[in-house]
DNA sequence: TACACCGGCCTTTTT
DNA sequence: GGCCGGTGTA
């Protein structure tokens, strides 16, 4: 048992306490994954059949990584018989086997968020209620809340409080919407993400024999990231574990970042109540990061009221301070980051794979991609608008979904007239209405089109088109019986007219759509190859569909991830580590997000997110923020994130000029950044505080009211007169945004020309008299 | 029936 | 800036 050597005391305890309930509180970087994998290995070496072990993770990435590490310890065949995966994928697998208890076919479709929203929109439309009030997204998140708290439609109607709450929210039809939505999904033979958990609960509660079967099977249960489980997941785990109580949960309350998905931090906080005999182990030594990083992170998280007390520490080197870069714009920020990576790559022989760029929202990727590409730095974007969510990809997949599950009316409506084949909205409505009236599915009507034709009220031309379409689908289905997934998909892409249609569009976007289709086909080929190699692999179409439905980021994982800069959201980065982290977009309303600044709870979750980001880094962290950002189609002013001011200044170091240090020093000491009305204006904040050129150059007075010059004095610590514009100055232009003055030309004050390089717009030559430049 | 155009809306994070 | 839904036109 060599692997036990090198564990510290609490780690050893966590690995070797095999029986009974165990809670491992694992601080960031404390070797959590190592403990989990070794624990599993230890179970197996102690004679436990891997078949009896269930390990649940939160992301596919985590599952995959852990499986690989376990395989190294205990061998491939042992690792393979483990049940390891995300909650959703494991229980989808179980529902495929047992779903018939609940009336679901084993080939049920899994709806992603978009599919579910489409179904919901139709429901709302059919009910004839105000779509302005019943916004699909809003309604969906309510439904999701219900489901995650096991409030079924019936339970809803038996719960006056809930109904009243919805009524107060001016949504008295919520129950009806919920009912119709659930019915529609059921009829389509489909489950949404929440259903995978809800239905599992239903299965385990209503059918004791099923529960007993899986209790006996999963004698040892491990749950990673337990702080991120929601109520539904909590109940599943509890039910499965109740027989043997060999349950080990691992988590860190400081890293709970999924409450928007229903994660309930009390699941971990109350573990001791559920299992009074539980052993608790705390892993507090951080082996990942420098002291500076760990200490700074501790300072940040200490601002949260709600947390377990713990003392995460590092005995690594002190390390460098966190460096902060203040940029003019998102583009400028991206250029800094790419230049910085380039330089460290050259001067410190860093691999590109040593770097991560972490951001709050996916929409921030674009600028970094551009900047990295310019410098020929290889990179990989994780997550984001997943490949499988692109329209053209979903379209082709919709054809394939129909082949697997004919009742999937969402897929059918997507493709029945795409590419256009003359089956318009009117026709589709007639079909749906008729099918509903006969209590049939549309596919059943299409199966017997000749028989129903007289009642449909459609002309012969349309009937022929419908017949042709359905014959094509049927032919694909026949083909699926003999041919492999790739060949069928290729045939679908060709015969449906999809490829031809996409190829007609010669714009870059159009070309990339064709490429995406090609890539989808390639990934199918890859899937087949992979499944054939695996013992008892399953290269079927339905297995392929399941794989992609539950994995946002599998996409082209085939290509080598070696030596590329990683770009991802902070959420995705959880559990990962990188020598050098760039944490970007540290601005108010972006991070913390404007959606999460309202309540203390929301803000604390943002802070935990910040903590997660910071603790990804091993050696060095770079923060950056932009004073203006191109978003929502225009340039928006931004101010630095409050999180920056929450870190003591001695952990920090400004990369660029003087003025910023002033800000950091001050805000390190007080919290004026929180004040609604700061005692003194901050130099970067409001337009009104910026200087103008009016006195010297006779520029027409700006339309906006300006504050007295006294403000400007504070803005400019060097004390030079506020009206001068000099080469090197940062200026703002009403239309072009923020830029830097490169060159001034002319002596006549009436006719001075300035060459300004704008962060977003590039180089412009401006006549000062006309260009209303504001010095910043 | 198909498509172009317009206007309003929003936009966090993931399974 | 991009998406969606509605509307007007060929």
Description:
Keywords: ATP-binding, DNA-binding, Helicase, Hydrolase, Isomerase, Nucleotide-binding. Residues 291-575 form the UvrD-like helicase C-terminal domain. InterPro entries: DExx_box_DNA_helicase_dom_sf, DNA_helicase_UvrD-like_C, DNA_helicase_UvrD/REP, P-loop_NTPase, UvrD-like_ATP-bd. It catalyses: ATP + H2O = ADP + phosphate + H(+); Couples ATP hydrolysis with the unwinding of duplex DNA by translocating in the 3'-5' direction. With 776 residues, the protein is of the alpha/beta class. The protein folds into five domains: 9-100 and 199-283, Rossmann fold (3-Layer(aba) Sandwich), CATH 3.40.50.300; 109-188, Arc Repressor Mutant, subunit A (Orthogonal Bundle); 329-382 and 557-654, Rossmann fold; 388-551, PCRA, domain 4 (Orthogonal Bundle); 711-775, Thrombin, subunit H. The protein is 47% helix and 14% strand. The chain has a seven-stranded parallel beta sheet, with helices on both faces. A six-stranded parallel beta sheet has the order 3-2-6-7-1-8, sandwiched between helices. Strands 23-22-21-20-24 form a five-stranded antiparallel beta sheet, with no helix packed on it. The protein binds a DNA duplex (15 and 10 nucleotides) through residues 58-60, 86-89, 110, 112-113, 131, 137, 193-194, 196-197, 257-258, 260-261, 360-363, 383, 417, 420, 422-427, 549-553, 569-572, 590-596, 605-606, 609, 630-634.
């Amino acid at each position: 048992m060599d692997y036990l050597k090198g564990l510290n005391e609490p780690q050893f305890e966590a690995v070797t306490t095999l029986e009974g309930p165990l809670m491992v509180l694992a601080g960031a970087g404390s070797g959590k994954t190592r403990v989990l994998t070794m624990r599993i290995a230890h179970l197996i070496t102690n004679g436990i059949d891997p078949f009896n072990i269930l390990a649940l993770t939160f992301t596919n990435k985590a599952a995959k990584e852990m499986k690989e590490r376990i395989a190294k310890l205990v061998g491939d065949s042992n690792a393979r018989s483990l049940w390891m995966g995300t909650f959703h994928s494991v229980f989808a697998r179980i529902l495929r086997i047992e779903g018939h208890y609940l009336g679901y076919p084993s080939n049920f479709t899994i709806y992603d968020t978009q599919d579910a929203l489409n179904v919901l929109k139709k429901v709302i439309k059919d009910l004839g209620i105000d779509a302005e009030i019943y916004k699909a997204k809003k309604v969906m998140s309510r439904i999701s809340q219900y489901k995650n708290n096991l409030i079924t439609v019936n339970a809803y109607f038996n719960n006056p409080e809930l109904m009243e709450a919805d009524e107060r929210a001016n949504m008295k039809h919520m129950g009806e919407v919920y009912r119709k939505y659930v019915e529609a999904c059921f009829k389509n033979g489909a489950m949404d993400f929440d259903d995978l958990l809800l239905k599992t609960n239903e299965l385990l509660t209503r059918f004791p024999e099923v529960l007993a079967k899986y209790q006996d099977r999963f004698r040892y249960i491990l749950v990673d990231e337990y702080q991120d489980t929601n109520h539904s997941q909590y109940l599943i785990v509890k039910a499965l574990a109740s027989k043997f109580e060999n349950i080990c949960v691992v988590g860190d309350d400081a890293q709970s970042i999924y409450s928007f998905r229903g994660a309930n931090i009390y699941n971990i906080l109350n573990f001791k109540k559920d299992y009074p005999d539980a052993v608790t182990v705390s892993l507090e030594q951080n082996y990942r990061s420098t002291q500076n990083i760990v200490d700074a992170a501790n300072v940040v998280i200490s601002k949260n009221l709600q947390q377990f007390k713990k003392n995460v520490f590092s005995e690594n080197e002190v390390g460098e301070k966190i460096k902060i870069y203040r940029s003019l714009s998102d583009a400028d920020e991206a250029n800094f980051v790419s230049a910085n990576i380039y330089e460290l790559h050259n001067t410190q022989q860093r691999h590109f794979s040593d770097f991560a760029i972490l951001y709050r929202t996916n929409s921030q990727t674009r600028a970094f991609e551009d900047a990295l590409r310019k410098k020929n730095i290889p990179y990989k974007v994780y997550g984001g608008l997943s490949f499988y969510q692109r329209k053209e990809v979903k379209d082709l997949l919709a054809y394939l979904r129909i082949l697997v599950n004919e009742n999937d009316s969402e897929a059918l409506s997507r493709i029945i007239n795409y590419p256009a084949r003359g089956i318009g909205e009117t026709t589709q409505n007639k079909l749906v209405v008729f099918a509903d009236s006969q209590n049939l599915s549309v596919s059943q009507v299409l199966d017997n089109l000749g028989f129903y034709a007289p009642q449909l009220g459609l002309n012969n031309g349309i009937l022929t088109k419908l017949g042709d379409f359905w014959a094509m689908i049927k032919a694909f289905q026949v083909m699926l019986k003999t041919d492999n997934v790739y060949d069928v998909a290729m045939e679908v892409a060709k015969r449906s007219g999809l490829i031809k249609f996409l190829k007609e569009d010669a714009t870059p976007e159009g070309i990339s759509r064709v490429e995406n289709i090609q890539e989808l086909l390639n990934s199918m080929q890859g899937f087949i190859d992979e499944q054939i190699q695996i013992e008892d692999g399953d290269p079927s179409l339905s297995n392929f569909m399941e794989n992609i439905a539950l994995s946002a980021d599998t996409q082209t994982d085939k290509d080598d991830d070696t030596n590329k800069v990683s770009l991802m959201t902070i959420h995705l980065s959880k559990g990962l580590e990188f020598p050098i982290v760039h944490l970007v977009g540290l601005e108010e309303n972006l991070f913390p997000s404007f959606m999460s600044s309202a309540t203390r709870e929301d803000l604390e979750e943002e802070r935990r997110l910040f903590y997660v980001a910071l603790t990804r880094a091993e050696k060095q962290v770079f923060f950056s923020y932009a004073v203006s950002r191109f978003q929502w189609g225009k340039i928006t002013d931004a101010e630095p994130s409050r999180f920056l001011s929450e870190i003591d200044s001695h952990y920090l170091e400004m990369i660029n000029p003087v003025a910023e240090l002033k800000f950091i020093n001050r805000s390190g000491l007080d919290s004026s950044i929180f004040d609604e009305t700061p005692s003194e204006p901050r130099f970067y904040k409001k337009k009104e505080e910026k200087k103008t050129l009016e006195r010297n150059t006779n520029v027409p007075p700006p339309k906006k009211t300006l504050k007295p010059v006294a403000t400007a004095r504070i803005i400019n610590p060097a004390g030079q007169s506020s009206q001068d514009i000099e080469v090197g100055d940062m200026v703002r232009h009403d239309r072009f945004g923020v830029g830097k003055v490169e060159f001034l030309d002319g002596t006549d004050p009436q006719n001075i020309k300035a060459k300004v390089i704008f962060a977003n717009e590039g180089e412009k030559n401006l006549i000062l008299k006309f260009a209303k430049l504001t010095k910043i």
